[in-house]
Write a structure and sequence with these properties.
The protein has 247 residues and is mainly beta. The protein contains one helix and 17 strands.
Amino acid sequence: MAVKLDGAYDYLTIADAASLTPSGAFTAMCWVWVDTYGSISNCGICSQWVGAGNKRAWSLEIWVQGANELLCAISDNGAFDAGLQIADSQALPTGSWQHVAMVFVPSTSLTLYRNGNQVAQSTTDIPAAIHDSTEDIAIGTVYDYGAATRQLDGRVAEVVLIHAALAQPQIAGIYNCKQRLPRHYFDSDLKMYLPLMGPTTAAVNTAHWGCKDLSGNGNSVSSVNSAPVWADDPLAPQSWVDGFWGG
């Protein structure tokens, strides 16, 4: 069961930590299901991106103001730079699970993936580093975390942050196998892994293991405003035993 967010003041946060700040290459990825878009601004999937005080670092979001396309963005100084965002040319579908990922290679490229396929890339004026934002990481919102117009009506699962640049075959492999990420898959480069999976009970308890950081780095999840609930997830049924997923 994945975390279900209702687009009206439900979202999750992870406290900012030095270990989560990319010092070089960076990959963020997760599974997302959109229920509805409605009349909203860009809505966040997973981000460390707040406009007030120029606390932008990176963002995976949906460009609702465009045509509901998947979008990713980075900042090297906390300010917005339209040249450092890229978007899919197709709308992100509603009512189905989509695997989304962004990959930053310093001074080289910013690449966006959906369901294992590259859908956008920029190699122009790519900065040497991502800004060290002091803002929390958010799941289900972006830019102004508390604004309902920025929040996702849908589900999120398997949020992964890696301080390395995954190649397309690696991302495609994760999408195609549709299994939970092995805990030690990326060794020291794995900085956060939140399954966001839980039991079939209604309310999400952030103390449940499904909301724990299984990377071993101890990042904790908090729910904001009304409590999210569990809903169907995208992956094959598995169990968690002694640090590894099993069938």
